[in-house]
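INFO worker-7 received task bundle
INFO bundle size: 2
INFO processing item 0
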Amino acid sequence: MKKIVVLFLLLSIYANAQLGKSMFTKDPIINLENFDKQRIYWGYFLGFSTFDFKTDFKTNPAPNMLIDVKGHSGFNVGLVGVLRLHEYVELRFEPGLYYASRTLTYSQFDTERDGVREVKATYIDFPLILKFSSLRTGNVRPYLLGGLSSTLNLSSNSKSKDDNLEQKFRVKPWTQNYTVGFGVDLYFEYFKFSPSIRGVFGLKDELIRDTDPNSPWTGNIQSLKTRAVLINFTFH
């Protein structure tokens, strides 16, 4: 996650250096002055992410029965379709492909075979996002965003008859999430660049329990929900 934040800061510094006086002076040269007046326009995004799980238990686990969830950096790519609803409000459809990985460590086990589960995911996300932009100042325009999404996990193992006894950690193929975030539009001479930071929060339990209701891997879990931090770099 620290690497993602550092990269975000470096790109911001680079944008500042490239635009220089054309953006941040009192009377900058206005780029793409009529761009946001379009009713519909398109773009694409690239980015990085860190996914983990929010785990709620049926009963408070003993210290030696905890589950440690560690998220790893992943990669995002997708398309963007924009419908302008108002001078300051846009409806955005941003279907994307997300590669994610998490490591679940069960402290009660002594062996890695039983105590560690690598949960990899390939998500196809279908979000509808409302973007609320501020008044444009020169070539800079901050914004807030929020929305809902349905997400298909192609690596859910949901059809597998094996469970954690056979080292198969299973989750449901479809999940629903809400997203909140913020960013800034930077207007260059030929394109608009929109970096953003977003939080994603699962709305429903995603876990498929093991066959044994007293399973040490899933028996005490009340719910398992996605959480994620996304850094997207969008180009229009």
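INFO item 0 finished
INFO processing item 1
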Amino acid sequence: MKLHGYFRSSAAWRVRIALNLKGLTAGQAFHHLRHGGQRAPAFLRLNPQGLVPALETDSGAVLTQSLAICEWLEEGWPAPPLLPPGHDARAAVRAFALAIACDIHPVQNLKVLSRLRGLGLPEEAVTAWARDTIAEGLAACEALLAGQPGPFCFGEAPGLADLCLVPQLGNARRFGCDLSGLPRIGAAEAACTALPAFRDAAPERQADAE
């Protein structure tokens, strides 16, 4: 397998964590997003969206979209599981993961922020807009975890929710978000970052880290 990503991409970060949790190794191909590496013709042949991550499988397939890749890993290597047993519980975990991947994360996407700058918004306004949207989304995520057992987001083992949460918190800090009012989220992050699977996937541990 070969994972195409970028050290700071939270979507690629999710997949790195998932691979680590599954005990899988993938070769790494790095595409510098700020230098336009994701728009190079060779990469667009892999992923016409021009987004990371993309995963080349051993069979020659190319998978895109981080949560689709994580679900593919879950189906191919079910242990340890990224999703809990039980119909309702699995839906709750997926909902939390999608709240981050679909509703919070896109507002920090480099393409979106670049378009805002292109519309003439000053950098302070772009950053404030992203920060406020992140803060609102994380407050909802904190409420979604109310009553859920810990120490991780949904129980005693990390899973799909956690591998989405940790990169999002990294993004939140880059934009200057105040995370002090999110105790349940903070506890889940602390449990995650105590594990090598999460620490080794962090941006500063990657070969392309600036």
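INFO item 1 finished
INFO post-check item 1: The CA atoms of residues 177 and 204 lie 20 Å apart.
INFO post-check item 1: The longest strand covers residues 2-5.
INFO worker-7 idle
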